Task: structure prediction
Amino acid sequence: MSATTRRHSDRSPRHARRSRAHTGRSWSATAVQNPPVALRLAPDPAPVLHLAPMPPVERHRLRRWLRAHWLSLLIVAALLAAVGLVHAIGYDRFPGRINDDEGTYVAQAWAVQHWHSLAHYTYWYDHPPGGWITIAAYTWLTQAFERLPTAVSAGREFMVLVNLVGAAMVYLLGRRLGYHRLAAAGAVLLFGLSPLAVPFQRMVFLDNPAVMWTLAALAIAASPRRSLAASAGSAACFAMAVLSKETIAVLFPVLFLLLWQQSSPETRRYRIALFLTTFGALVFVYPLYAILKNELFDGPGHVSLLWAIDWQLFDRPPSGSLLDPNSETYATVRSWLDQDPLLLGAGVLLAPLGLLMRHTRAVALALVIQVIMLLRNGYLPFPYVIAMLPFAALTVAGVAHRLCAGPIAKNWRSTAAKRAGQLVVVCAVAASVVVVGPTWSRAAHRVMSEDDSRSSRQALAYVVTHVPKGSILLVDDNIWTDLVRRGFDPSPIWFYKLDLDPAVRGRFRNGWRDIDYVVLGRLTPTTMRDLPLVAAAIEHSEVVASFGDGEIAVRRVSKDAPD
Amino acid sequence: MSRVSLAARRWGRTVLRYSLVSVISIALSQTVLMVAFGMLHWTASLANVVACAVATVPSYYLNRSWAWGRRGRSRLWREVVPFWAIAFLGLGLSTWAADAASAMADDAGASHAATTAIVMTASLLAFGILWIGKFAVFNALLFTDRPAPRHLRAPLHRHRELVGAGRTVRVLVVVLATVGLLLVGTAGMRAGATQDPPDSTGPPTTGEPATTAPPTTAAPTTAPPTTAPPTTQPPASDPSTTVATTTPPTTTVVGGGPGPTSPSGTAETAPTVTSGGVVPAAPQGGLPGAAVGGTATTGPPGSTAPPEPPGVVRPASFPSRVLRGLLDTGPAGLPQRVARLPERAVEEATTVLRRLSPVELGVFLLLGLVSLLLTAIAGTTLWWMLHAWRTPQTLAATGFSGAAADPRLSFSLIVPARHEQAVLGATLSRLAAIDHPTFEVLVVVGDDDPETTAVAQRAARRHPERIRVVIDTSRPKNKPKALNAALPACRGDVVGVFDAEDEVHPQLLRHVDTRFTETGADVVQGGVQLMNYHSNWYSVRNVLEYYFWFRSRLHFHAAQRFIPLGGNTVFVRADLLREAGGWDPDCLAEDCELGVRLSSAGATVAVAYDPELVTREETPATLGAFLKQRTRWNQGFLQVLRKGEWRRLPTFRQRLLARYTLAMPFLQAFIGLLIPLAFATTLSAKVPVLAALITFVPLIPVLAVLVMEAVALGELCRNYGFRARLRDHLRLVLGTLPYHALLSLAAVRAVSRELRGNRSWEKTAHVGAHRTEPATAVELDSWVGRSDRTA
Result:
């Protein structure tokens, strides 16, 4: 390898020979006065040096890794195939376009990709832009907007991918926490196939990429090598999660706990310090952006980050207490449990038990934190449940694993306890298969075959063919991007912006009379109250076409009607 | 057997094997071509490119090892790259032939099967013509013998091979070259192909959803929450914004992706690569219609299907609908789209760049480059600084493994001393008290230094069996000459070097002995630690610098097999030292030079650090002394860099590391001045937001370095029983910039001295600030657990 000659022949025996000759001899006491020998360096080429043999080089690491992990890889492939099929078949058709946020996020992603701006209207710091920037990156890479029929479909395709990665991360995290392969596989199946999970995970919510990044951060933090790079990587992933959805930051203690648990004492302080520094520095980019645009503090004439944080935390109307049967919170949680009692119910019930066991402490803590936030009496966002699902799955699987594995101390009672635990788990699994199995399979069939977004597509098709291109349209964001891509110029107005954005309102001085067509679904009375111009436009219009039994209607505004 | 016929037989065997390899690779490439063009309906050119690439890999290996009988590693620039280049040259020729044949067959109105056959024949013919030429080139140029071995060539040879480059690097280069050539080839083919008239099988230009389903009531909606409140409801009092951001740019196509005016679907794959922005009317020629996604032909699910009675799902239609759904929006056409990505990226980048003014572009480029450089420097500093704590196993491996019960080596410890009468006596007493059966201490004093000589001779009289005095009569005097003066008098197996002010742990030699015998290393470098972190404003940073260097960074260098040694607590095998010729008498950093010379020749260096066993030293007492010390080190590094011994290192990575390490003092000076500039730029309002964000990036590793230094200060305090007060932490944080300014000054001073040729040795004075008792002959207390250090 090196060009200089090397002879390995007599390494250590030479040492031994020399030292054996030395023992027992005493050094002479005279001071030696040596004439200084001008030692020249050896001339080129390099001198022949008798050197120690080199240590062996590690080779074929990939091959060794594959040989060690082939079973897990096979299991993960099978699991991802199952989860992928259920998620991917009919992802665009079910659930339907029931939430306008989906359209907003893909519209913003489209704006990032095509207009190189953070949002299709002014970006007002409602959420950090990381989520839709990743959607934009995906759509650019795969040309999703061009391939797929609607813009929301592009976002949903990305969500399928995100959830596949999330499922793989659930398996990885489970294994790294010490679960048996079956338990980790069970966690993935619970996470990926539950009827509560699939509709929410298909929809384009920022919670989905945030949860994926959080699971990645946890899986990396649980790395068995306990390295510095793992803590930095985990911090980077969690920073991406927070930059996708800021509310996921409540799970910070979970990540900290896991990192602390998984560090050895000598390197712990460096790991934690690097973790905190990386996370802090990366998350700081968001307020730094606001500072650089002079939009950090509230002031006249511009949006502000601090104002948006304040609004999100305090100014939103509360959804009521969980304990009050008439509140919105109660109704929402009830609907979750109706869709699938197993995952969420079992997860929450087993969470206290999970807190006691070291291996499941982190994931149980994540679930407990979110349940506590739920009890807080604040505003409950619609996709809140998404962040609870993987931790519920992991808690259930962790507790089951621990019951099957038996107590840690091995004594004469432990075998009996182990058998009892295994019996309990087997009975529980059998019972759940029997009880919820039919529900799950019915739900799976439903998510793969129902077409609930047909009315939205039909409305889009109608508008494209029947409405002249120069008209001013008032639409919701689910079809906004599609209309812009099909050439509606001036672009349609997202209906919220007509009342709430002064710049938009400034362009339409005649108020609702400037609108030609309104394409909206049914709006709640509170929304109509908050948006008087939109309400007026709807009031002075007539229905030209209606789809989905009134789910979405195309209205033409009669401009000459009296006010 | 005559020599001629032997050569001829060998040549004939090569020809035969080459032919067989050609047959194999042709069979392989034609199979792939048939699959790609015939079954997957890719374009003829793309199919040909892929077939060629697939067939070249086994062709290369078979030709090289079987036909020409070469073994060992492939040479990247002599064998791999020319082989692939020739392969793609042949591909270019055959692709042109294939395209021409395809066009001819289309003109003649042949069926698809016949076209496939004609294309295959044309490709084959073109390859055949090149076959002879390739053989000649391979025989004469590629697979011939190597040039002369490296060690017989002059060491400053400029030619660099990537022979020794790691396997990963080579694989990566080959993959990138292949991908690059593939894309270039594809782009070229398409540039040629866009001249073709529009194909009749192109995608339809009508937008989709195409049908007009009558607005009747469809299946009832059954989703549980029908209209959920959106979570991003904008606030009621949204303040006004600048108008520019709310009005979207006009819908004219800005190049790159398809413009919003064109309908969705496959028509939008039409824009050309080369014209950069205009939406042409003609879709891409030569596209088999079914290759580019089914969206055009089958429409979105649901809109073209006949209206079904609500609620009834026919069992037979579910699998077919599933399949159709998968094919509609699935990965059909994805390879081509992904293959077009780099071209689209380049298009979009050029459009964006064209919109910037030259000044803005210049600012962006400058800031980007500087940020990248600073991030790289700060990032590598951070990573190598933390090398020891990478994993718990790495940390455990940095320590000594134990004291030898029966030490097997004999040590000669050289202590060069010049004007060190204040501290020398105590040092020699401690050295004489080391717990090891066979060692000697050689004190080197100058013939013009009577006070130090007197102290040394007193110590030699007290410990006659251990200490000897060597007089150095060289002119002018420096440390390497002193060391070389003592080297002939060394009688031990291992030569160790200590400074005159060191406090050496009595158990050190036993541990070093174990390290030598257990690793079989040629050199063992122990740990040195400065102790007086409280003395003045820069001493905290100086102490931490030493801590990271000996605790962590040296271990990284040892693992990379390129290590600038320390001048202290370093042990080298005596016979190796003599073979290598001792220290360089003219170098100002003789320790670094020795380390570079030995590790470049391939010596194994073991570094070991233990907080108990470190040799304790002091920081330079005054700012002037510190500056002189750093100037000397920097100048020494510069000398080592210029000397070029590091060029003997075997791999490119090691040489790069050598250059980087030896130039580090100057790079640090550079970043020391540029970091505050970056900080100021980030906060200044004149630069665009993106540029400011770019300049923020290098601040992240700098911040991390600062945090790690604070953490290490805590660890130091725990290890040595210090108590770091707020004053020390403030000195750490606030002293960063002045310290770097000092280092920059030292770097500049070193460069100017080197340019002037001033190589005189500016010695550092020592006052014993790291010691708590006066410098007289003392009894040695118990070393472990002294927590009352208050100095």
